[in-house]
Amino acid sequence: MILQVLADGLILGSTIALGAIGLTMTYSLLRFANFAHGEYVTWGAYLTLTFLGFFGAMAPLGPFSFGWPLLAALAASAAATAVLALALDRLLFGRLQHHGSAIVLTIASFGAALALRNLLQFLYGALPAYYTRELQIAIHVVPREIGGGLRVTPDQFFVLGLTLALVVAMHLFLQRTTAGRAMRAVAHNPALARVTGIDVAAVVRWTWVLGGVLAAVAGTFAGLVGQLRPQLGFDLLLPLFAAAILGGIGSVPGAVIGGLVVGLAESTAVPLVGAEYRAAAAFAVLIAILLVRPQGLFGERAR
Length: 303
What we know:
It contains 11 helices and 2 strands, in the order H-H-H-H-E-E-H-H-H-H-H-H-H. The chain has helices at residues 2-30, 37-55, 68-97, 102-124, 154-176, 178-188, 190-195, 200-225, 232-247, 252-273, 278-292, and strands spanning 139-142, 150-152. The longest helix is centred in the first third of the chain and has 30 residues, at 68-97. The protein is globular. It starts with a helix and ends in an 11-residue tail after the last helix.
């Protein structure tokens, strides 16, 4: 029982972590809370479903419930979601950034989120959807005699493995590449970065692209191990913010750890206090940690 709760928490936390990375990067560079980020998650999930219809069906790949068409659809969806994020920045955020304060941008993102959610529901309908109807038998990873046993489906293994690969790739990108170092410089001091010759506008575009890609992957993962619904991103929005704040705004490792902590807190709350209180349990953990460390686990203390 205990091991199963921990495994479920890690699977949920991996989806939250991927979404929180884009959210914390946007906040650290552009200095506003983007409520539309949750809708990027939903649009990414549904765009994968759309592209999956173009690529067609194929026999499942090994033990998984999906084949190569889903992976191709995920790649196309990630690119399309990045374009959506860039377009919204070009039409809305980029224009307001030079004339409005952070609160104006935040309210504008809330309005954009409502528009995107209703447009998606108009296009796809309100009924739940699924990538595949294939049934999977969970694999016994740990015998029942040890901690109540542990069963994980192949799709859940895939989600955990690809999440780990993407997190490592993001870390290497930010630490080893010129674009990644430029992003860290702009997040630390935009004015100084501009003086040293860094193209801040290009860095902002990179941020939107990466955030959109990771949001699409997070949405697809959520749909793969659950179901697609128009409220998917909205339901994940508060956990995404909780993970970003818990880890420390601007910290990619912090967003990952924060996502896992939030996922574990929500999963643990289900057998203890009931599923209806899972979000409250996650925020109770957030508040407790912030009382001890207000800047978050990996954030820098304000001077």
